[in-house]
Request: fold
Amino acid sequence: MVNSSQVVAGPRLTVCAAQSATMPIDLSALRAGLGGTAAVCAVDLPFGSPEGPNRSAILRAWDVMSRCDGLFVRSGSVPAVLIDRCGRLRCVAVHGVGVEQVDVEACWARGVEVTNVPGGNANAVAELALALILDLARSVSRQDRNVRRGHWDTCRVIGRELQGALLGVLGFGNVGRLVSQKASALGMSVLANDAMLTDASIRAGGAEPVGLEELFSRSDFVSVHLPMTEQTRHLVDRRLLGLMKATAYLVNTSRGGVVDQEALADVLETCHIAGAGLDVQDPEPPLPGGRLEQVDTVVLLPHSAGSTNECLATIARLAGEDIARVLTGKNALNFIRGRLVSR
Reply:
């Protein structure tokens, strides 16, 4: 951690934390990570563009952000038009792993470093993925909805136990490995596919390496843990979904765009697969009245996998430490240069 003795002389540095009421930042942990290198100011930044319904709120936030040396962004976006206004800006840190909400190329063109926090939310996301797997296996949310409607005697669903079930993990990075470990502790066997890893590395992580087709055709549950890139957009398409067993479930806690949602809606509506648990959708927020909302075998969450007290504190502290490194002329540990994401 950078401490106050390492502060560069000159005007007081400021880091702006962009958050919202439902997507807060642990400001105390951020200050601890910065170690006195910079002061912290917080702004409420909704998602959307300044041409949309949140125009006034976005422009107010941008006015504050334009005067800062560093940005720590959880809510909202950082487009090129904002970066152009930020004459002092030296670092943009993203609250998590994915950097889609930041115009990374525009930052690089202006000499602004972009950082993320790979692994900072891994345990929280892995636990939620497992929660969705358990929910789907026993129809917890579905039965809860029906009990509340007064259907006590008619809403019981015969579920399945996880012990002995086969879990397919698509993407065997920080989160995927933790999901594998937790699932194994419950008696599940694990298959894994990751184009960036060798078979030996996957085996060392406790899973059996398999090809994409085999993972989807054999698994009782498929859990998706891939970054959003040009190569992974709609990777889980109609063909792969069509390989799944009628008794199988899909879980996605990575990025909504990795899964072709129209194809997913088709296989769910026709009962080609048993159900799905989604913490992410494409777009976000989803358009009202979407097809997935109408399917009773789908569990939908509002991209909340990383929303735990422990996760927020860890991410803010680590991001603060990297911001401090950049502001004091050092190299960030988790810079996004020559790569779009690190898991």
